[in-house]
Write a structure and sequence with these properties.
Order of helices and strands: HEHEH
Helix content: 25-40%
Largest sheet: 2 strands, parallel
Shape: globular
């Protein structure tokens, strides 16, 4: 179990814990609006390893404005 600010459960961990408990379908979830700073350089790598599609905040803003 990874820790966030030294604790296993915080405002920053609900989706990680849900994935660890297999509550998400593989490759069927998105992480939309990622912005910095991140707690660790591994944050995005972890999301990708969990099968989350990553859409960064700036990319989301651009796509919404285009539509």
């Amino acid at each position: 179990m990874g820790y966030y600010f030294g604790a296993p459960y915080t405002h920053g961990t609900p989706f990680r814990r849900a994935r660890e408990e297999n509550l998400f379908l593989d490759n069927a979830s998105m992480h939309v609006g990622i912005r910095g700073p991140l707690y660790s350089r591994d944050d995005i790598k972890n999301d990708e390893s969990f099968g989350f599609k990553i859409i960064h905040c700036e990319n989301f803003k651009q796509k919404v404005l285009i539509k």
